[in-house]
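Two entries, shown back to back:
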Amino acid sequence: MIQKSFVMMKPDAVQRRLMGKILSCFEEKGLQIVAVKLMQINEDLAKTHYGEHADKPFFGSLIEYITSSPSLAMVIEGEEAISTIRKLVGATNPLEADLGTIRGDFAMDTGRNIIHASDSPDSAEREINLFFNEDEICDYEIVDNKLIYE
């Protein structure tokens, strides 16, 4: 099933100049980038996005961190995109993430774990709608899809 997922490279990925390498991971897998924007996330958007963590002790530092520098927000599409992207991203704790995953290769600390990816179809829809207007998401066909998908 073709799905759309929300992915965000966090400030540490932007500051460490890893955006191109990370974006390549998704493209090389055969996933399609259908929306992307570099943005400075404001406090209100950050609190809405991370609302499920509002009662946790790390919430304040998470909001401070995610608003500290630009992030790269994306919508990525492909066959079973949500689970595929989660596998590419790796475990939340980078020290538990397999080498060869984005977090396993580029991150060392849970608080600076490089990237966010939607964990379900419901969260993907909610997060995409938080960060993108419908007219910002492109609908196009990649010419090599016949080589990627049967």
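entry 2 starts here
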Amino acid sequence: MSPEQADPPALEAAFPAELGPDVRAVTALLSPSRSGPCWEVHRGVRIPVRLYHGEPHADAVAALTARQRLVLHCLFSVHHDGYVRQRHAAHVAGAAEPWAVPFVVRLTEALVPGSEARRVYGRFAGEHPEFLSVTERRAVSYWNEYQRWRFPQFAAHPAAAVLELLRAAAVEATGRAWPRQTRVPRGAR
């Protein structure tokens, strides 16, 4: 993705036009920003890379609709403060709305080698191997039931890539191997 060169667009540009009223309801709650968001654009997908607004008060967030809260979580999942990003990313990670996908994809960048987020994820994975094992088994079960026709090998499924990133982060953080819940195809080790 390349940085946006012109003046930054309104935050509505990160969402489909039909979400305009929802995005405006969310942005009305945002405090003034000390600087505009940084943007990335790739073949028509616009997504803010960093957001500098303060978080709205919890009562105001509670008054939003479920869709508006997801919009808010998407926006704050790219906040400049890593703690704020982490709180909101938890709400975005499982989102199935097509317009939330770019924000979910951005979350995978948290697992880039050497990043602070990768260390945090790695520590979590190392401290909670049973949770990650259950998650991996569920991902395999979902793949087997609904996606095997598209991805004959689990290793080709998008969830497998994320699980591999988590596994690598856990190994880096703990120095111990994370047990596999799936078979590795021959020659893939």
